[in-house]
Amino acid sequence: MVVTAATIPTMSEIMDSSKAQKLQLKLQTLGPFFRITVSSLETEKELGRAEGFIKIWFGAGKILHLDNIRLKSETMGMEKSIFGIG
User: Fold this and answer.
1) Number of H helices, E strands in the chain
2) For the segment 18-73, what is each residue's pLDDT rounded down to a tens digit?
3) d(C-alpha 43, C-alpha 40), whole Å
4) Are residues 71 and 86 in contact, defined by beta-carbon separation less than 8 angstroms?
5) What does pLDDT average to over the chain?
6) Taking a C-beta distance cutoff of 8 angstroms, is the pair 53, 65 a contact?
7) Residue 3, domain member (yes or no)
8) Which of 5, 19, 53, 68 could form a disulfide with 32 if both were Cys (CB 3.0 to 4.6 A apart)?
């Protein structure tokens, strides 16, 4: 699959989509490191988090390196994954 700029959603589109699914996304960054936390808008409980960093490969651009994804048991019955495909 080739990903082009036209197929990459904007942060605004991602936030709108999460709200439509009754989820709140929180993005925290420190230099190249990031943490994304997903909480339920209904219960305000944390449902999961993803952590990693952005790595620059010369000649290839930026690569998103995902170290880990942690999901709470409440996500098992959800219709869609809180982190997209996976």
Assistant:
1) 1, 4
2) 898 899 999 999 999 999 999 999 999 999 999 999 888 888 778 888 889 888 88
3) 5
4) no
5) 83
6) yes
7) no
8) 53
